Amino acid sequence: MLISDLKGGLFKYEVKDYYAILGLPISASPKDIRLRYLKLAYQLHPDTNQAETRENREKASTILSKLVNPAYENLYKDKLRKECQLIFSEISMRLAPMAKEMTLSGEIPKKLLREEANFNKMYQDLIETLAKEQYQDLSKLAVKIGLLSELNMIYLVRQKQGELGKVMGGASSNVEPKIAVSEPIITAAPEQSGNTGVSQQVEEKEEKVPVSRLEKLISSAKNHIEQFNPDAALFDLREAVKIDANSAVAHAMLGSVYLLQNNLPYGRIHINKAVGIDSNNPTVKKAQEELKQKEKKSSTGKTDGKKTESKGSDKEKSKDKKGKKEPPKIFGIPLW
């Protein structure tokens, strides 16, 4: 099973919900993430797995390497976890207006969606309950991950609705809104030489158009890309999409930089977002073509050049000088 095989919840929108894979709420702390990972790694690792058949042990090992390990790797690093949160913010912004029309798989997420008074507590309790049996029956794992992801999706949508409600509430306070009145443009007729000074002042005012922070960030990112500095460009473009989540150029460029770093999933998300905003923009078209080329290249039967070591040598390395078997380590963490 691969992450691409998961279709429920946020995965339906091509968003990788690593929290659902680990059976965690969106609000999980780095410590919670690490403890949950260690528990799952111990449960699924070939040396500690309790499955009765060889087939089930191999399946557990595959799930550990293809699902659980990538999920932990993307959540325990601050940089990658913040990137996940940014993507979550974007998708929740899209889904918030149509929350009532969301298609949910069962009564559990529907119940959470209807809850008002104790929403946060119910969300936490449901995640905890489902996580306890999440990896008990691996044949139903995809369904359970999808269900957990639906709960996370509802949490994100309700969180975003709360943020938007606060913004709207602030706008409708007792303070009267200020209405911007544009100044009339005064032009002088050729024979009215007395108004020349006024028209010159207006023209000068129109010419001095301030450059927005968004434009500065995009311009800076272009310079970094030309100087082969994708990390700096990535920093600028992340700030750009925070300032304007509907900037097609910012999303397109951010997606292109991710492609340069061989991060196809994030590249696809931002480029598809840009296409949805303005598919006719030249920058968006260029990024879309880059994505097609990258996807075509990745799908042309790549072979894994890594050679597996013999089982005999693995067993020798796994024993210490006294002949005792050493605990396996994942990401440098011993499982016991």
UniProtKB/TrEMBL annotation:
Keyword ATP-binding carried by entry: no
Database matches in Gene3D superfamilies: DnaJ domain, Tetratricopeptide repeat domain
J domain: residues covered: 17-92
The UniProt record lists the keyword Repeat: yes
Region described as Disordered: spans on this chain: 278-336
UniProt-listed SMART domains: DnaJ
Any Pfam family the entry gives: DnaJ
Bias kind Basic and acidic residues: ranges: 286-328
Entry-linked PROSITE patterns: DNAJ_2 (PS50076)
Keywords carried by this UniProt record: Repeat, Stress response, TPR repeat
SUPFAM superfamilies noted in UniProt: Chaperone J-domain, TPR-like
Annotated protein name in UniProt: Heat shock protein DnaJ domain protein
Organism: Cyanobacterium aponinum (strain PCC 10605)
